[in-house]
Amino acid sequence: TQQHADEAELLFSVQQAITGELDLNAVLQMIADEARRLTSTDQGAVYLLDGNELVVSVISGKVDPDMLGYRLPVEGSVAGLAVKTGKPFLVSDAQDDPRVHADIIRHVGAGSFVIVPLLAGSRAIGTITVASERPGMLGSEDERVLTMMASGAVIALENARLYKEEQERRQIAEGLREILAILNSNRPLGEILNFIVAQVVPLLGANAGVIYRLDSNEKKIIIESASGMPDEFMAIGPLPLTDTKPNRATLNRQPYAVTDFETALAGYHPDDPTLPPQLHTWIATVRAHFGSYLSVPLIVNDRVYGAISIFYNKPREFSDEEIKLAVAFSDQAALAIENARLHQAEQTRQRELQTLLDVAAAASSSLELDEMLSAVLNQLVTLVEASRAGVMLLNSESGELESRMIRPEHPVAPEDLAKMCQICREVIASGKPLYVPVDLALGHIEPGALLPLRVRGQTLGVLVIIGPQGSAFSEGYLALFESIADQLGVAVENARLYERVEQAAIAAERSRLARDLHDSVTQSLYSMTLFAEAARRLTVSKDQESVEEYLAQLCETSQQALKEMRLLVYELRPSTLEEEGLVGVLRQRLDTVEKRAGVEAHLSAEGQLDLPKKIEEGLYRIAQEALNNSLKHAAATAVTVRIQIEGNLLTMEITDDGRGFDLAAAADTGGIGLSSMQERAEKLNGDLRIVSTPGKGTKVQVQVKVR
Asked: Torsion angle of alpha carbons 606, 612, 618, 624, nearest 10°?
């Protein structure tokens, strides 16, 4: 008939309009609007099946807005019968039909209904419902029209659902890619976790989210990152790690969901004294802002690190797919935490290695014990952020334990020092480090580390490191301290050996000076005494000629003694060869010794004298020996030092006008330092030539290749 043709055309146009839309919410709204228009009714709605309940997803017409989101149980309702049987139902008078749920009559106030199931194949996904305020206003014709419309509506809903799922999967994939990108960046862990939780909240359709860390040692739950949480929630701070269902689930590595806070808190009492105050505040805050939440554990390196919790404003169920997705995001957060841990461990290892290198550099910076200890302790305090560090050393002679140094300088009461000495002696006796943690009950407000300083099985003392108040030394730091103590032990031993060598060198130098004074100046002074006494006696006998002879010898001997004293004084001064260079130090020698002794001294240097340290040192020692011989034995009145470089050959000559000597005889006896000069020349791969004739002076020549 024409009516059926018009009806079919209308249904076709409706179906075209519905199936042409891909936004799920828009499709649902169009279905409700068109169902109400086709049946000329007051109200229209679409219910979608969610577990054992039908949820009012959209409404149209004169319907109480509170009905949106209303959950109708499948059991005990007409709509439930339509879903279970797959058949439409017509209710002509809702007031007299016992199958109608009482809540529907109360909220909708309708007199008659038509309920048509939405069937995807043999599976019901929901219902289309239209209602009139008056009984008997809807009939079989309305039921037939809605049934015809339902098949097209299901197709539209399935298309929109598939499109929505595809969009959601794409958003999730993009979100995961963005998370992976930030995981590969160098951003701090806190920033990465903030990004992850900010991504999780919208992708899971939540309103807020938080990442917790469980501190098993402190028995606390600590917020590490959050998104969308109210200020009063963030102000709660760490929560005590109590034995609650959510915490047990996390520790057992299981997700935990609360679909309705009000239902879950049915037996809760705000004044329950068994619960901590922070937990009461947490419950009150969450209850005021949210209706449900889902928590999944964070497993880092096969260890429960904490949890990600996502919150929703209203009660809701959580599908397996949503839980799996939350777990996937939890895995990403766990990866970020593990990466940050590894990065931090690597940074820590690098800092520890650098600390070890810096301390080693300080330990080798000086062989003077106190200077070295000061450098090491100052470096140690700075690098490990210690409040102070000190060294107790055993006196090598008395065996007493002495406080050698503390940095920064800090007065220590005698009773505290005595107590510290006792503890250090226990460390020395055991040969093992002692670590003292913070213990307020015992009065230990700072952590301490006492480490024996050992070298070749011998304990030299104890290194004491005190940390900041309330802190603790990590295992990495404790291992680092042991390495530092090993290095410091070697440095202390080296400094002591150097001190002994210095003392031995001083003693040897004193012996040499004593010999030189005895062999030269003392003998000269004794001779002067004899000459003076002889002259005095001859004066009495009026032997003027002999008196003058003895006085001349006295003058000559005193002049020689003066020369030798000037030489000894010069040798007592530190060498300036490194600062002045060969020419500078030779000029200083001639000015200080020879010229003051009345010897005419000259120095000439030709060419660029940029000599290696070894050659410069060797040439200076040869020149020094030659000048000493001239001063002590030759009685020269003039001496000349000439240095010349031609190409890569350096020639140095020391010439005097002294008494000279028999070279062959001197070579047989090895005297006058000839063998010493010869050995030094050979070490430089050079040639040494000495030309001397009795009464005609001496020339010492050395030639060395400098390049």
From this structure: 50
